[in-house]
């Protein structure tokens, strides 16, 4: 009513889904509640500003538009919405224009998806035969392309951008162990991801990792002359050789810490977790799977669910 008064309305019909309130403002019911009595006097004061005001009852399902107008009037700021114009246009008031829409970049999955989903075939018979052979190894689930295997679960196919994210998280994320190329590729497959250049991309990513190159094995070091150790009697001299997994853990700590050697205690839990989620060369399984019979859920699943 305040908004209508500012707009200069003289005749007003109000609809409400409260039967009791409609009868109270029409003086058919008595207002006993003190809070409602204040609203009643406020209504009577505003009523004098109009020539005619009618309050009628309607069902709640038919009162949605009135509720929207009430919220609009109650949430407005002073000085705003002083006038409202409602016009029904028979036709569009602006000319139609075509806006260019950028198509997603084409990836290695585009032809396979178009063949499986939209049944689009290339014109070249040799290309069509090759595409049919490739498409037989894939299927589409909820709009996502997956690769089928004989002894492996469905592997989610990734494009170049998604593949870079997965490699970064698995290689040096929370569960990353700065693994070698073949180990990194095996962890990606075990996590449920696939793309055709997985193995070569894993090797190339390892070459670009600064920590792996800085703390890697010196396979190209110059040959050194061997020096024999003389012993006066058998077992006079003893030596200790650190074997796996201790050497692996120490190497991973060096890669993670860099120059901050004193923070090894904070990094040790993540290094141990990464070691337990990495397939070993002897068993071809992760220590976590050998202990619990299932693979651990690694954090890369949060950013790119498989």
Automatic annotation (TrEMBL):
* GO molecular function terms noted in the UniProt entry: nucleic acid binding; RNA-DNA hybrid ribonuclease activity
> Taking every annotated instance into account, which residue ranges of this chain make up the domain Integrase zinc-binding?
160-215
Outline the extent of the RNase H type-1 domain: 3-72
Q: Which InterPro entries match?
A: Integrase_H2C2 (IPR041588), RNaseH-like_sf (IPR012337), RNaseH_domain (IPR002156), RNaseH_sf (IPR036397)
Report any Pfam family annotated for this entry.
Answer: Integrase_H2C2
What's the name of the protein? Gypsy retrotransposon integrase-like protein 1
């Amino acid at each position: 009513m305040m908004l209508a008064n500012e707009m200069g309305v003289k005749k007003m019909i109000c609809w409400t889904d409260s039967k009791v309130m409609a009868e109270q403002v029409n003086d058919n019911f008595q207002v006993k509640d003190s809070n409602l009595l204040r609203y009643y006097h406020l209504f009577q004061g505003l009523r004098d500003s109009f020539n005619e005001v009618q309050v009628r009852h309607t069902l709640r399902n038919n009162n949605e538009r009135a509720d929207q107008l009430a919220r609009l009037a109650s949430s407005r700021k002073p000085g705003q919405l002083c006038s409202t114009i409602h016009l029904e246009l028979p036709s569009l008031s602006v000319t139609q224009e075509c806006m260019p829409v950028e198509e997603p970049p084409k990836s290695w999955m585009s032809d396979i998806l178009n063949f499986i989903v939209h049944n689009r075939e290339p014109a070249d018979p040799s290309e069509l035969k090759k595409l049919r052979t490739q498409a037989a190894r894939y299927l589409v689930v909820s709009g996502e392309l997956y690769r089928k295997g004989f002894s492996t679960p469905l592997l989610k196919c990734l494009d170049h951008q998604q593949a870079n994210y997965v490699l970064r998280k698995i290689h040096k994320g929370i569960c990353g162990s700065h693994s070698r190329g073949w180990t990194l590729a095996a962890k990606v497959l075990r996590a449920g991801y696939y793309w055709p250049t997985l193995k070569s991309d894993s090797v190339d990513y390892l070459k670009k990792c600064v920590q792996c190159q800085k703390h890697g094995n010196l396979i190209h070091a110059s040959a050194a002359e061997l020096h024999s150790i003389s012993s006066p009697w058998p077992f006079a001299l003893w030596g200790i050789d650190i074997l796996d997994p201790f050497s692996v853990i120490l190497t991973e700590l060096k890669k993670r810490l860099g120059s901050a050697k004193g923070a090894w205690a904070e990094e040790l839990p993540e290094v141990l977790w990464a070691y337990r989620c990495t397939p070993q060369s002897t068993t071809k399984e992760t220590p976590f799977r050998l202990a619990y019979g299932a693979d651990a859920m690694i954090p890369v699943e949060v950013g790119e669910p498989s």
